[in-house]
Amino acid sequence: MQSSSPRDPTLPAPWGYWTTLGWTVLAITVSMFVAQYVLISQNMDAAVNFDGPAIAISVLVSMPVQVVILVLATQLAYWPSAAYLGIVWPERREIIVGLAGVVILAAATDGLFFLFGERGAPKIQITMYQDARAGGWLIWWLIATVVVAPICEEIMFRGFLFRGWVQTRASAPYAITAIALVWSFTHTQYNLLEMFAVFAGGILLGWMRWRSGSTLLTMMMHAAINIGAMVETAIQIK
To answer: Does residue 2 lie within any of the structural domains?
Structure first.
């Protein structure tokens, strides 16, 4: 198992807690303005009922912008970007553990939803899927959901934020929890129960990032979570 705690002594210290947060806020803010500009130029608005095509465009445009800004931040910290963001290949055992964790998480959250009387995919997810399909944007919406979002969100949350906030073994549980909370609050399109499921997923992803040292692993896991959600949605609305 790779260790994510001991830092290479030949590298400078990563950005601190508040500077890391500042870079993250800057990346999100700039990307939002870029996405909004593109949507306005296309006479679209992602805020209107979370319109599927508009959401697809917003993700495809905004998230790469976030990554560019965060990569710039790693360069200004005088780190190799891949090392800073945890872009390393995980061990086979870690891949197996991570994907098993995704299966267990899916079963646990489905059981929780059943107990609270909620069955099937989130309503807003179904609406976006149907909107994207009706507008001829389904393929792009799926690419945004199962490829672009997992890669870019993991670079931000389990890559950049993780490096800045998880700097000691003692801080790891608190930082992983804080990062999962921040991540869950970026999914305000869901109800509270669904946001709790996102938070639980964030804890799992953060723990696997900690034990494996690999953000590539959390990208795989995040993509697997989203693929499962898309399959469930497609089955439900057929």
So the answer is: no
Cα dihedral angle (29, 31, 35, 40), rounded to 10 degrees? 40
- Measure the CA–CA gap between 41 and 54, rounded to whole angstroms: 12
Tens digits of residue pLDDT in 105-124 = 999 998 988 888 887 778 88
The DSSP annotation for 150-165 comes to HHHHHIIIIIIIHHHH
Task: For residues 44 and 40, give the distance between their C-alpha atoms in angstroms, rounded to a whole number.
Answer: 6
CB neighbours (10 Å) of residue 70?
24
Q: Residue 75: how many CB atoms within 10 A of its CB?
A: 12
Q: How far is CA 168 from CA 3, 5, 90, 112, in A?
A: 12, 6, 21, 33
Q: Is residue 166 part of a domain?
A: yes
| Closest alpha carbon to 130 in 234, 23, 5 | 234
Query: What is the C-alpha separation between 224 and 29, in angstroms, rounded?
Result: 28
- Please report which helix (H) or strand (E) contains residue 30, including its range: helix 17-41
Helix (H, G, I), strand (E, B) or coil at 192: helix
Q: What's the number of domains the chain is made of?
A: 1
Terminal-to-terminal C-alpha distance of the chain? 43
User: Which domain covers residue 114, as residue numbers?
Assistant: 17-237
- Distance CA(7)–CA(9), nearest Å, equals 6
Q: Convert the pLDDT of each residue in 133-146 to its tens digit.
A: 888 889 999 999 99
